[in-house]
Amino acid sequence: MIANKKYKDGRLSSVMETLKKHHVSITDSRNAILSLFMESDSALAHMDIESRTGDDFDRVTIYRTLQTFVDKGIIHTIPSADNSIRYALCKEACREGHHHDNHIHFMCDDCGTTYCLDHVQIPDMQLPGGFFATRTDMVVSGSCNKCIRK
Amino acid sequence: MIANKKYKDGRLSSVMETLKKHHVSITDSRNAILSLFMESDSALAHMDIESRTGDDFDRVTIYRTLQTFVDKGIIHTIPSADNSIRYALCKEACREGHHHDNHIHFMCDDCGTTYCLDHVQIPDMQLPGGFFATRTDMVVSGSCNKCIRK
DNA sequence: ACTACATTGCAACTATGTTGCAAAAATTGT
DNA sequence: ACAATTTTTGCAACATAGTTGCAATGTAGT
User: Fold this and answer.
1) Is the minimum CB–CB distance between B134 and chain A shorter than 8 Å?
2) Which residue, B48, B70, B86, B113, is most buried by CB atoms nearer than 10 A?
């Protein structure tokens, strides 16, 4: 149904380019969901995607698409203490099976928005002997720059 | 059914002392659940508690007890990327509406155990202008000191 | 021991996430 | 452009997780 649509000049859209780069086949749902991430400047929860795509796609498809994107290094997960994982686009360095998102995340308690603070790196930690880290998540919550003025 | 049981010498058990200190009334379920936390050296998920208490208490009671303990500053939540919040005892400094658990948490990918690394403090972060932090969670995952030897 | 208040269990419900399978679509090679 | 192969999708059914209202029971203070 999609057949690899190109622009007139032969280039693929940046959505499709990204899918290709990460060796993910191109489908309607993946195009639509990846577009949402690329247009959004904040992280998205499963529910955000479900409501923004209406009934274009089945719930299950969204779950599977998100899982595929995580597996292939296109998006990364952001843990939270409120039982709702968010997802956000990875930067260049991530690829299949290997994430390198070592920036901190910020969740606003007022508006609920979750940001990747790309320029704030997670500091290296000295762990006790015998503990070996493969991943570190740092999530700060509080008021974001749009809500603090109120 | 409980009537504030004391030891022979008049002291309350440390479980009850803790409940009193945090202005939480003493009930069977709270005694049992707080005991579990005090006996455990790692964090507990709702499911851990449900399975360790058998059918002594309703599922709903466990949810509400955990929420009460969090609200009153007895335990704190530990976010995770696998959709299962863990809970662990707070140290002295926490009280109603105000948590001060600024240590990092470690989740072992092998055995699933979650630890509070009390001696590893979360470093102060410099946030972008306009962002104000009220809470910081840092969760490291990898292999714990019991699993890394394998 | 009595009263006022808080907690519990139950039932029903909502939300969230998973699995198997047949139909549909995407990719690959010609 | 077509057919063959592989992947993805939607559906249905199921499984797990969390919430709410309410009547019954338990706790705390006097």
Assistant:
1) yes
2) B86
pLDDT one-digit tens code per residue, B13-35: 899 999 999 999 999 999 999 99
- Bridge partner residues of A44 (DSSP): A87
Extract the tokens encoding B1.
Answer: 């059914």
Model confidence over B95-148: pLDDT tens digits?
888 888 889 999 999 899 999 999 999 998 899 999 999 999 999 999 999 997
* DSSP conformation letters of B74-105: SEEEE-BTTS--EEEE--TT-BTTB----EEE
Is strand D less than 7 A from the beta carbon of A144?
A: no
Is a pLDDT exceeding 80 seen at residue B10? no
Distance between CA B58 and CA B56 in Å, rounded?
A: 7
Q: How far B74 CA sits from the closest chain A CA (Å)?
A: 16
Are A98 and A71 within 8 A, CB to CB? no
Beta-carbon contacts of residue B1 (< 8 Å; ≥ 6 apart): B28
Closest CA to B109 of A79, A60, A135, A144: A135
Residue among A121, A42, A54 at smallest CA distance from A86:
A42
Q: Chain A partners of B120 at a C-beta cutoff of 8 Å?
A: 125-128
Per-residue model confidence (pLDDT) at position B9: 52
Nearest nt by C1' to B25 Cα: D27
pTM of the model: 0.90
CA distance A58 to A50: 9
User: Residue B139 pairs with which residues in a beta bridge?
Assistant: A137, B105
